[in-house]
Batch of 2 targets.
Target 1
Amino acid sequence: MFETLKALAPDPILGLMAAYRADPNPKKVDLGVGVYKDETGNTPILETVKQGEALYRAAETSKTYVGPPGDPDFDRGMEQLIFGADHPALTGDRLRTVQAPGGCGALRVAAATLNRAAPGAAIWVPDPTWANHVPLLGDAGLTIKTYPYYDGATQGLKGEEMLATFKQLKAGDLVLLHGCCHNPCGVDLSPEHWDAVAALAVERGFTPFVDLAYLGLGNGLEQDAYGVRKLAATVPEMILASSCSKNFGLYRERVGALTVLGRNTAEAEIAWGQVQNVARGIYSMPPNYGGAIVGRILNDAKLSAAWREELAAMRDRINGLRDQLTQKFAAKVGSNRFDFIRRQLGMFSFLGLGKEQVATLKGRYSIYMVDSSRINVAGVNSKNIDYFVDAVCSVL
Ligand code: LMR
């Protein structure tokens, strides 16, 4: 039977990990897969994660199933973190959350649940969007359509075109929005854009589907949550996939959450049951460990405050690197061509290079980035920044 299957090219993002590891060049630079790196190039385990693990281990008495919704402390903790404890969606008891195996698990279960509610419904995704959105959402049965988003000429948002598209949507349509730190382009909606999207969702009747994978890595936890909070305070229904991979550094533990906002408690409860039933048919129940750690951190005031500091340090490092890159490129190129790096947010930016230039950077300099010229800013450090800037300038 397997002879009918075709060999696939490596995944456009994950394939870079293997290629980078196999490269013997001591000067190699990894700006590929979106993981945070510190100044030494390591992806550290957060101190608060170690402490949360120790707390959890000390109290752990059983390895029995965690149950379909996952760890209740995690679920409540994530709702309060994302929406804020006083948000009307929380106080109105309209939110329901399940722990999921990573943001991807949450996205897939969300898509499959939505496809039960509205088979084959159109889901509008930004152009461009994270490459894995297409299989995660499309293979669940939803119909992928794109809305204008990134403007390569200005390295900013096609705000007017985006809103003009949303004005044409109808009830039953879904709109995928990156909550903050857009992957791959680093361009986010302004608060005014979020306000306009929320108003249009009500006017046109489309349902927002938010992917929040980088909360806290843009401007700060509160600022980064503006859009999701605004939507949840405005629209009758929405669905949210969130991830703890980046902001808790728990990548391989696969920790994410799926949250539904219902028109009322009863409908949220029904949607929550459906979500759990969909998950049961895919992986049955979420893995426990990573969610248990996050649950301990978020439910311990001291630990939670310390985690916010660790998160701020990661964010500040990324934003500092954005400043440094902008300055170094300006000095080398003699123009403001790369100033957009400073204006964008989160881990990613497009350099605006063609595929051949990206291939040259890899072949000649062992600098790894996605073919679209997306770089993971966090992969830059004081040892490789000049090498990287010089190499990019050599292919311009
Ligand atoms: C990325 O975009 O590099 C990350 O989200 C990792 C992944 O799974 O693609």
Target 2
Amino acid sequence: MSELGLVVARYRRHSLIEDDDGNRIVCQFHGRALNPVVGDQVQWQSEPGGSGTITEVLPRESTLTRIDNRGNPEIVAANLSQLVVVLATGPAPDWFLLDRYLGAAALAGLKSVIVFNKLDDNDSPPDTLAGYRDLTDGICLTSAHQKLGLTELAACMDAERSAMIGQSGVGKSSLINALLGDKRQAVDELPDKGGHGRHTTTTSVLYGLPGGGELIDSPGVRDYAPYIADPREVERGFKEFGQFSTKCRFDDCRHLAEPECAVKAAVASGEIAERRYESFKILLELTESLRKKRR
Ligand code: GDP
Ligand code: ZN
């Protein structure tokens, strides 16, 4: 008899699932084609000895898809509702990367929150951040070290299934530890008995947050390079372009060298930030060159 379960951790060849009663079972996969990722709803069957086998992955409502080393798309998490993008005073914010993440969130139908971390005593956020007020679902100012802004951050996450992303060194681990307390350790150490890796680099984990909501922590998400298949999709990732792009002379305007482009006019008049337009062009180029590579 098969039952429903939620994938709460993914190892190389096994998943840890949670059933409706909160029991956790280490499962293997029935067949090589199955690739259950964290956040997946699955059908599974119990095996003698207390383990299980995943027989089916149910249709996904959303996915986080990145480009792997060979330039191919790879799904790293499923059924999430929000991206939490972390920036900090150091390493210096990479605003293009932020635009890329926000674009990917929009295209995947996810909400997005920006966290600006390491705002310790006397620090103030950079002016550029203010330009993002209308482009995301929330901005939180935090210091993981001084435990500032964590209540606000928890409130932004309490009704969502979030994934936390951002450059290495901005404080994601510190924030996750501050949000979870000792809960994090507990899951990392669970399925040691099968010998499939305690806290290996391939481990992705879904945590329940103490204040509500869920958080996906995954190395595949941490160095996430979002995948956009179609260059025509790129502009949908730039929310503020929408009201202008409908007024371009050509329906298929790419907003590059075309005459009577309302997007470029909006950049010239300051209604669209120059920096955002630059990000758009870089992302468009990147998407086009990846598409050529795949041909
Ligand atoms: P991750 O790579 O994004 O997971 O970042 P880590 O959580 O490993 O943090 C990187 C470094 O930044 C560590 O040395 C942390 O101690 C430090 N750090 C994290 N949060 C804060 C903060 O709020 N203030 C300051 N000053 N340093 C922080
Ligand atoms: Zn245009």
